[in-house]
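Backbones bend. Our protein:
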Amino acid sequence: MSKYKIDVKKNSLSWEKTYIRECDKIDCKQKGEFKAPKSRKNLNEYYFFCLDHVKEYNKSWDFYRGLTVNQIESSMREDTIWNRPSWPLKGNPYKVIEQINNLYDDKINNLNLDNNKSNYFQNKILNERFTTEENKALSILNVKLPLTLEKIKKNYKKLVKIFHPDVNGNNKNAEEKFKEINKSYKIILNKLKNEH
């Protein structure tokens, strides 16, 4: 037994009528089938061109026209993260800065810069606020900006645990380092007390 199929006549409704869009290029009567964005700022507004004119438009299209090199680089960096802020999946986003600082320090240490060149990377604020002795104390305690009493104490405790004479036995180098750490800690604490 075969199924009977009803033949339905399809009427085109007024809102279903399609019209042929002409190419947006002046004096072109061809069908405008291909979309092209109007500008970098209006990416959702389009011109409609025929195939020949869309090729011509695409050759002349420059998304970064009128931007400086820094703006272009910034735009490209934002595009790599889909214009959304990013942070590591584990931990909080504030650890990113610490990770960047550690990475930067590792890269600088790998360069094996001599003393003259390493001055290039020194922080101007540190140089103006602190004497050379205080700067040396900061480097011994391995403290980074911004300075907080918490951070100084944390680094001090960590270094003391590593270089304490009870842990290292009769190691003279560890003992000297331990003395340097204590002296540096006192210098920085006195500096912070004097400022407040």
